[in-house]
Request: fold
Amino acid sequence: MIPLTFDASYMLRLFSLRAPALAGGRFGRHEVSADSHVDFILKPGFKGLWRYSNLWSFGINVSYWWVLQLATGDQPSSQARMGNFLEVTATALRHL
Reply:
């Protein structure tokens, strides 16, 4: 697989709270045996960070993944797939 990715973010600030708004995407093509697929992924999301001290911030990261997998080559269009995922993770950020 050879992926091509991009990401962008914008930091919103309110007192000791930080809320980066995130957007990302990926394009990749992969082959397994005789199967070949092209994947497109859009990944919007946000983080909520609380600045605990000058060194640390803690928070949560929420991202939605929309995955479109297109069939290529000899495969019928019925082999195309679409996936929806929700990513929720805890975040610890160390400031240097």
Observations:
- The radius of gyration is 18 Å.
- The first strand starts at residue 2 and ends at 14.
- The chain has no helices and six strands.
